[in-house]
Amino acid sequence: MFAMLSLVLLVGCRRAARSQEKPPAGDAQSVADNAPKAEWAVALGPQARPHAVAVREDGSLLVAGDFSDHLQVGPLQLTAHGGAHDTDGFLLALEPDGTPAWLLSLSGPRIDRIDAIAALGDDVFVAATTTGIATLGGVRVDGGVEIRTMQDLESGSLVLGRIDPTGKTSWTRRFRGSGDIATAGADRDGQPAAGLTAATIGLFLTANLQGSVELDQPVASHPEEALPGEDVLAASFTLDGAPMASTLLTTAKGGTPHAAVQGPGGGGAVAGETFFGGSVVAAHEPPPPDSASMFVVAVDADLRPRWAWLLNGATADGLAVSDDGELTVVGSYGKAGEIDGRPMPAPVAADNHALVVRLDEGGVPRWWRAIAGPFDDDLRAVAQLGDAIVTGGTAGPFDLDGKSFASWPGDAVIWALSATDGSTRWLRTFGSPDEVESVFAVAPLSDHRFAVLGTGRGFRVDDLDIAPDASAFVIAFREP
Q1: CA-based torsion, 176, 179, 184, 185: positive or negative
Q2: How far, in Å, CA of 162 to CA of 393, rounded?
Q3: How far is Cα 231 from Cα 256, in angstroms, rounded to an integer?
Q4: Among 279, 298, 440, 448, which one has the highest count of C-beta atoms within 10 angstroms of its own C-beta?
């Protein structure tokens, strides 16, 4: 059903306070001599909040997110339209060697951000949230929406757009509804609750819906205590932005999506978390009311649910698909439990353990791995590269495959595993002794090369430095 390479890259972060000295380089840095080395790095200014990354056919990298006040990347710069508490979205193109190529903004009077991007050929598609009248790359966002009242000005809208290889806006589409709509909004820890993929058959979007939106049909989230609920929206569009199909994947108290993948014949899969007591369509039984649950839902070309897989007390942050339709989901869990009859390491106190699970095309677990340290561990993203799975998102100390790692709480980690059985290929960490680093997106650049996107500052990776005044980074790695 799905098309993809056979290596999975999983990337995450550690979100814990630091209280010890930085350990020396050595076993804490790499589990094997074949761990990847940094090729180039680009630091984003202190006001940048990147959300997504994509790669075009020519090997150039695209980074999207939002910023306040001012954004500078090399010689390129943007100034936000609104005040100190408002944001504009940005889309940055980097050459294959990391050289900044162009930079554009999604600019409006209130909160504007680009939440998800997808490359097709050398073009890039964006999914964004905007309020009021806005422009994308200097072109007014279109959609036939008349701004007549203050509520019209301040209500959020879902925006789709297409950008050509030179950074010019080809078209935009704006979709509005009623209530407090935030169809591409951010989730509760500040990361976007949206995912976008592109293929020749069209676009596949998942987003967090609060209120209602007019797509191919009216779609409204389920109310909770007389307020708009938050539900998981799945929608498909033509490459010109015309809606084809749409549906909600959660009911009752709803949930939030974090990742999506698309199949070559249409449809795909969505991963995320339910809220306490939220329900997922196609699930055999509802999640327990006392905790959130990780979910993966597969849908066909008409967006009808095929199956759903849930794990109580967990959240899914990343999702990838293989050539044979198997899915790899990554995230974290905070409750003791089991997967396919095997007990999971029990978390200590309120800390989470990092988790990666391989599901067959019917949603049945094939294998899983966990990183279980005494601090808060998490995996944030997954991609495909070669014939392995690469994960990340923990800080030590922790034990893995008979080795003890003295990683610092708050360091970013990238971890490669075999896609066949989950065995470790390599693992390495990087970060500052004084800051918390988060790696939450990854993109394959070419054979044995990939890039990671994250937040952090004031650290060194191999021979490259991330400045102490940065807020975010893009780092390209190469396997030996």
Answers
A1: positive
A2: 32
A3: 6
A4: 440
> pLDDT class for 75, splitting at 50, 70, 90?
very high
Tokens 């790695």 belong to which residue? 477
Are 271 and 299 within 8 A, CB to CB?
no
Domains of the chain: 8-478 (2.130.10.10)
For the chain, the C-alpha Rg in angstroms (whole number) is 21
What's the predicted TM-score (pTM) here?
0.88
Would you call 93 exposed, middle or buried from its count of C-beta atoms within 10 A (0-12, 13-18, 19+)? buried
The three-class DSSP label of residue 178 is: coil
Distance CA 186, CA 51 (A): 10
CA distances from 202 to 213, 341, 375 (A): 20, 39, 42
pLDDT at 1: 43
CA 36 to chain centre: 22
Judge contact between 412 and 454, C-beta under 8 A: yes
pLDDT of residue 9: 46
Q: What is the 3-state secondary structure (H, E, C) of 282-322?
A: CCCCCCCCCCCEEEEEEECCCCCEEEEEEEECEEEEEEEEC
- 40/9 Cα distance (integer angstroms): 18
